[in-house]
Amino acid sequence: MAATDDAVAADDDALYVLTAVLLTPAKFPSVLGDDYPEACAALGLPPLAAGYGLVLGQDSAGARWTVVTDDVSLVAVAIASWDCGMEYDLSPGERTVVAALPGWPLAVAVAAPGVPAPHDPEPDPEQPEQLPLTPPQSDAWGPAQRRLGADEIALQWAAWREQIDDANFDTDGSAEGNGAGDDAGAGPSGAKAEPPWRETRAGTRTGAPCRRGSPEGSASAPLTGVRRVLAEARAYVETPPPLGRVRSSFASGEARTLRADGPGWSMVARTDDIAFVLLDEEPGEVLPVGRGPELPGLLEALDKMAVRPS
Fold this sequence. Notes:
- It comes from Streptomyces alboflavus.
- This is Membrane protein.
- By secondary structure, the protein is α+β, with helices and mostly antiparallel strands.
- It folds into two domains: 96 residues, no CATH class; 163 residues, no CATH class.
- Helix content is 20%, strand content 21%.
- The protein contains six helices and eleven strands.
- The strands form two sheets. It has a six-stranded mixed beta sheet, sandwiched between helices. Strands 1-2-3-4-5 form a five-stranded antiparallel beta sheet.
- A hairpin with a 2-residue loop joins strand 1 and strand 2.
- It starts with 6 loop residues before the first strand and ends in a 5-residue tail after the last helix.
């Protein structure tokens, strides 16, 4: 987190910097979209290959502002310094400022000292249609909350993984009613890890098994649930999705953490372990997907085509 007495110029006023995040193909605030172009579009920005840095702060009146800079390296160095507990004066040059957007797209827990409490700025009379950026609601469930949930699982992988007993995974070829398929397994109900949303749990699926001859089990029936997610993820290998929908980052040992998103779903996985799936149509549910015979190959293929931090 930035020191709150740092200030940069924005719209002829001082901006007291509170924090900053990257907006690049390999790392962007997932609340903004399933992929990098969608995240840029949410802020009215073109998807530049090099990306942007987002600097969140308050002006001298206490109003919330998000300053967009194309000096990505400067913002990356500042974030790395703050993560190490070091001070860093983040001051993007005036020529590097692309836009100053009212509001914050993310929740910020701190405020600048010596100025009024954080609030949205007054509407710009020249741009009355421009609404302030706001973080997603914490008491609702939708695409933004689903992606935030996947973020939290990636950050707390060990806490979520220890809740899952591999013996509970389905190994006889039957599938639960959510269309999970051979790789899916049911985890214990009642998650021990503190979730980012109150009702989330690694839940046991209660639907009847999908058996041969049933409508859901027929080849012509549309795929649902985890089966649909795995099928769409496999399709990414053949037809690359929009930039940033599949991202790979460091994990312990030689493994990688994979993050994939698609219409209505998010998946978090370790290349040497299982995966977790979240769905828009399953509010607060975290669905574990066992290794099985197919998941390792899928994760390896996704990792090869994923965007990685430079």
